[in-house]
Amino acid sequence: QVQLVESGVGSVQAGGSLKLFCAAAGFNFERCGMGWYRQVPGKERELVSFISSTGGTRYAEFVKGRFTISQDKWKSNLYLQMNSLKTDDTAVYYCAAECPRIGNFWGQGTQVTVSS
């Protein structure tokens, strides 16, 4: 059974840092791209950052220079280092795996709250 499980301390003051973790299991994610998305109530889920199966990364403009995506060499753990957090970064953050010819998998989401 494919599982993506997010974790990480969820509350911080503006200007602070958090690191999110995603544990991936139940599937060989070697050929999958993996990413972080976020969603706030009333808005569509949006891409935060993505790392391709070959290691290339991309970031949404609103997090460039502040967030860093990474993964371990076995691709069983995905990370998102978030620095200089803003209140606008408050959202539910989701881990996702996008696997060619297989489909997409999603975690259950983890709440990140940035207070002023």
Overview of the structural elements:
It is built from no helices and 11 strands. The protein has strands at 3-7, 11-13, 18-25, 33-39, 46-51, 57-59, 67-71, 77-82, 91-99, 103-106, 110-115. The strands form 2 sheets. Strands 2, 4, 5, 6, 9, 10 and 11 form a 7-stranded mixed β-sheet that branches. It is globular and about 40 Å long. With 116 residues, it is an all-beta fold. Strand 4 (33-39) and strand 5 (46-51) form a beta hairpin.
Mean pLDDT: 94
Structural class: mainly beta
As a percent range, the share of helical residues equals: under 10%
Question: Count of helical segments?
Answer: 0
Tell me the distance between the termini.
Answer: 40 Å
Which quaternary structure do these chains form? single chain
Main beta-sheet strand count, sense and barrel state = 7 strands, mixed
- Cα-atom radius of gyration: 13 Å
The overall strand count is 11
Strand portion, in percent? over 45%
Low-confidence stretches: none
Shape summary: globular
Order of helices and strands: EEEEEEEEEEE
Topology diagram in text:
Layout: E1 3-7, E2 11-13, E3 18-25, E4 33-39, E5 46-51, E6 57-59, E7 67-71, E8 77-82, E9 91-99, E10 103-106, E11 110-115
Parallel strand pairs: 2-11
Antiparallel strand pairs: 1-3, 3-8, 4-5, 4-9, 5-6, 7-8, 9-10, 9-11
